[in-house]
Design a protein that fits this description.
Oligomer: homotetramer
Order of helices and strands of chain A: HHHHHHHHH
Strand content of chain A: under 5%
Number of strands of chain A: 0
Structural class of chain A: mainly alpha
Number of domains of chain A: 2
Largest interface: A-B, 37 and 37 residues
Helix content of chain A: over 70%
DNA sequence: TATGAATGAGCCTTCATTCAT
DNA sequence: CATGAATGAAGGCTCATTCAT
């Protein structure tokens, strides 16, 4: 019983994500989402008192899917260089394999606004840069294997590339994906390491 | 008379851009734009028979502002390395100083859709990668100063970083801007050049 | 058990009255009332099969509280003049001390409608004028202490003043209340008695 | 042209009043009002940006009709006693002959609320008591023809009776109306004058 | 007896578009 | 050229009611 309830919530969230990806945040009306879920409009507003609440749930749900995926790769590594390569690879891999969630997050975060027009997710969550910054400091200060660059700006640069891939790659050619991953990993390897 | 008409058109486009940036594409209704322009709603639909047409004009106008700005820097340079540095710097500088246009383009391109939900600007214009690709080929094939990487993927990587800066930087601290430009320029310098 | 059921009913009615007074009849939804009562919406519809039924219960409950209060004062008096003064005073005192119930009645009676828009309590209950009319007839026909006026119109006049006080007086200043009571009592004393 | 625009506004207001009187404030939806006016729903929201704005217009319009009517009677009189009689008679006559407007005002004023449940017209406009208070002071302090009573409370008492007549009298029997007017006028004549 | 789930209608509002002037 | 008027669709939301458990 309780299980069913939870599933219904999640079912709606998943349907919402699907609709958002297909027709965009703006056209992802509660009516459209309900139709996709095969339920009446009231069901959606019953489980989520607001459209805002539903969209927050969409973002949370999508984020929650990424975290374990990313950690898996990071625990197996050692050096700063290896950590950075693993971070980029695991993130890109997640994005390529879960484009749906990534796009949904982007759609919601960049479009959801309050009544007076302010972006709902205006304050960028700086904490997402923390893991990268730690890796950079490890390479610069502890190992001395990284050249001297600003960790914050480099973190933003890396994330820019990762995040943009969610919308850039459309064809799911597996070869393309592996090639792209290895190229980007190499790119930031060269970009960060200290030349002997 | 004709001059007035053109000015009126451009005025509306500029006001539209302002509104789009402030409240987002979705809330940038014709009514809002007309109010901002200080004219009646009819004037807008008179100059632009469609909302779609107005939005296309917004994108064209914004793009048109970028092109001369970019070329100015590129003509003064020589080597592939210098060209790349100039390309990145001029693009970033334009973006930082014309965030309004960049954001407007992003808003419109990523949100404008047809009635059945398809993105209006779905087909990514691959031609924007051409200048970068040419620079990369010059460095790899002619000069031999660049290492061996995929020019297309590298071009997408570079543009990802440039484009994302339009939304990432909020404070207009001039020092921050210069720092960011030099860091990113250096990053891709190291990322592309062949180590001796 | 039965006791509990009754208490639960009355608890809901009291909460409904509170909600009605605070946000008005229209906004006194079953959901709001249930929330105030700290129970699920289903409990309300379980005890009252209808919103209409609940509202009727509200009116009955509120009326029921007034009757004993009014009689207490009336039994101790004698002459028509004294009866009228006691009637007005006791009614005003009840209203001032139980504004909640009075306002709830007014809200429901003046707003509850059938599906086709007809007032539910359309037919004014003429019986509420009876006690006053009897007092007037006593003063006019038996005692000869009252001047010649239409008992029905005077009864409506008196009740108008009494009923309106439920919404007019907002500050609960005790001095104000006593002053108001004595002034109104005097007013109708002068208005009804035969001048020598 | 301008004339037509004004008429359309007033036409909607009048239709709104009619609908409010017939089905009550709550059921007087913009849709219902538009249907009654024989126009599309959008026309109403075009002329009145809000339901609140429309309702304010209803109240203003209704009030505006009362003022000239009341003044006509008051200018012809002299003594405090005559002024009071004229005030009550003219007000009652207006109410009986324009019940529609009076009821509309009552419906709106006692039901229109803000989003958080507060009455829109919460602050009672004390200025409506001013004319009566002036009459009373004239009779008490200047002429000495009125007995000693609280002018404010008496003013509220008189207005209670007048206002309540808007909802109390349903049959338009002309004889009833005249009888009621004369009885109420007499009542407050006796209630205020000083007995010799 | 009690509850959460679901429904469908209705409301206010926003909006792109059309049209007569 | 420009405008105000009007339309109709769609959106988010509230709500009384029904129903299975």
């Amino acid at each position: 019983m309780k299980n069913e309830k939870i599933n219904r919530r999640i079912q709606i969230i998943e349907d919402a994500i699907q609709v958002i990806v297909e027709v965009g945040y703006t056209n992802a009306s509660i009516g459209n989402i309900a139709k996709r879920a095969g339920v009446s409009k009231g069901v959606v507003t019953y489980h989520f008192s607001n459209k805002e609440e539903l969209m927050r749930a969409v973002v949370e749900h999508s984020y929650a899917m990424a975290i374990p995926f990313m950690e898996k790769f990071m625990n197996e590594s050692d050096s700063a260089q290896a950590l950075l390569r693993a971070y980029i690879e695991s993130n890109l891999r997640f994005i390529f394999e879960h484009q749906k969630y990534v796009r949904a997050i982007i759609e919601v975060v960049s479009n959801a606004r309050t009544d007076d027009g302010e972006l709902l997710y205006k304050e960028e969550d700086e904490s997402i840069y923390e893991p990268l910054i730690e890796i950079f400091k490890l390479g610069q200060e502890v190992e001395g294997s990284f050249r001297d660059f600003c960790p914050i700006i480099m973190a933003k640069t890396v994330r820019s590339v990762i995040d943009s891939m969610g919308t850039k790659v459309v064809n799911n050619d597996i070869a393309d994906m592996e090639k792209t991953i290895s190229e980007i990993v190499d790119t930031f390897d060269f970009a960060t390491r200290k030349n002997s």
